[in-house]
Write a structure and sequence with these properties.
By secondary structure, the chain is an alpha+beta fold. The chain has helices at 6-29, 35-49, 89-96, 112-120, 153-192, 194-207, 211-225, 229-241; strands at 55-62, 68-71, 100-102, 125-132, 137-145. Helices cover 56% and strands 13% of the residues. A hairpin with a 5-residue loop joins strand 1 and strand 2 (68-71). InterPro entries: ANTAR, GAF, GAF-like_dom_sf, GAF_ANTAR, WH-like_DNA-bd_sf.
Length: 246
């Protein structure tokens, strides 16, 4: 009995390609703490790693801020930009909270203005998948093809997995950015504290280092001695202020 094993092989290849994409995406975003840079990395990786995808874009809606856009090709950035109108695959995906696709834009009627612009730019197929980041940010990742029928059901599955994984990674990016900003605010407050500021000045003079590095030295000493940072600062200031004998 002859068994046709081609389809399982194709499915296996698709699974391996998707796993490789998610690994690369994780590696690319794991240490990023700037949201816009993370979006730029996301669309670049998706474009390069998904066979059949010619371009990739991202549309982000952030509470209290203008919509954000990232595009693997700046020529196509307008297709992800809501300033050109909300009638687009990305906005449909965001509003309906489900994947939106068109394998062939030639006969597409849902987004007439957007479709006309897309076709002029060489786009023939699109998949937009909604991405939930956190309570402040939602968006859609947009996969584009330059040939009709190039985006298949496998690409839809990839887009769905990509959107879910990207949402988790982008949420981590925003969390790291928040923590970095909060740490910066705490550092500013410490630098403004009289005795801590004096201690930092002493360390800067002794080591010839900038204030952030001097603050790290002070923190390290506080951790090693297991006493509050302000107390370490006071001891240092008292020590250097004490008159030398002889």
């Amino acid at each position: 009995m002859n068994l046709d094993t081609r389809e399982p092989t194709i499915d296996t290849i698709g699974v391996l390609e998707t796993a490789a994409l998610l690994r690369e995406l994780t590696a690319g975003l794991i240490a990023v703490d700037d949201f816009d840079r993370a979006l730029a990395e996301l669309v670049r990786i998706a474009r390069d790693a998904v066979p059949g995808v010619t371009w990739c874009g991202f549309t982000a809606l952030r509470a209290g801020e203008p919509a954000g856009v990232a595009a693997s090709d700046e020529r196509l950035a307008e297709l992800d930009d809501l300033r050109h109108g909300p009638d687009s695959p990305a906005m449909s995906a965001i509003l309906r909270r489900e994947m939106t696709s068109s394998e062939e834009l030639d006969g597409e009627q849902r987004w007439p203005s957007w479709t006309a612009r897309a076709r002029r730019l060489g786009v023939r197929g699109v998949i937009s998948a909604p991405v939930d980041v956190d309570e402040q940010v939602i968006g859609a990742i947009n996969l584009y093809a330059d040939a009709p029928g190039a985006l298949t059901t496998r690409h839809q599955l990839t887009a769905m997995l990509l959107a879910e994984h990207a949402g988790l990674l982008l949420a981590s990016v925003r969390d790291r950015a928040r923590r970095t900003a909060e740490a910066g605010e705490r550092d500013s407050a410490l630098l403004g504290d009289g005795v801590v500021g004096q201690a930092i000045g002493v360390i800067m003079t002794q080591r010839g280092c900038p204030a952030p590095e001097a603050l790290d030295v002070l923190r390290s000493a506080a951790s090693s001695l297991d006493i509050p940072l302000r107390e370490v600062a006071e001891r240092l200031v008292v020590t250097v202020s004490r008159p030398r004998e002889g």
